[in-house]
Amino acid sequence: MTSRLRTVLGLGALAELVVFIAVAAWIGLGWAILASLATSALGWVLLAKQGTKTLTELRLRAQEHRAPGTALGDAGLVAAGGFLMILPGFIGDVLGLLCLLPGTRKLPRALIARAVLNRLPDRARGPVRVQSTRPAQVDPEPGVAHVTSTRVIEGTVVDKP
């Protein structure tokens, strides 16, 4: 584990502890523990409901031979959100809800996409422009089987301006 990840995890655990103590001071220790248990139970329920829905969508896409698209990313966000909700702590519960609820999944998806794009080299980002040319039509020789479903695209990749 890298030192940066350990630092982030340590600061996250410290923040969870500080927030729990603040909530316990505000509503009482018993109520804070009860609220933590209630959010964990809510996490289990949401994980079961959203997980089943997302896996059904993935299965349907696989049966129809379609690309998984955002359904695969949603499955990962649902799993991460459920994990965060099940763990005790109020900050993780809020982050987990953002990942579990379909209407709020766009925010974590956009943040993750931005983080991934920032780590990619410039050449791997953004639209790739391609100039293509079509080869001249070739008539098949008489008596030779000709496959018409094969497509050949010739071209060169143009760097970004």
Automatic annotation (TrEMBL):
One of its GO terms (cellular component) is membrane. Keywords: Membrane, Transmembrane, Transmembrane helix. It comes from the Bacteria. InterPro entries: FxsA. The chain crosses the membrane at residues 7-34, 77-101. NCBIfam families: PRK11463.1-2. This is UPF0716 protein FxsA.
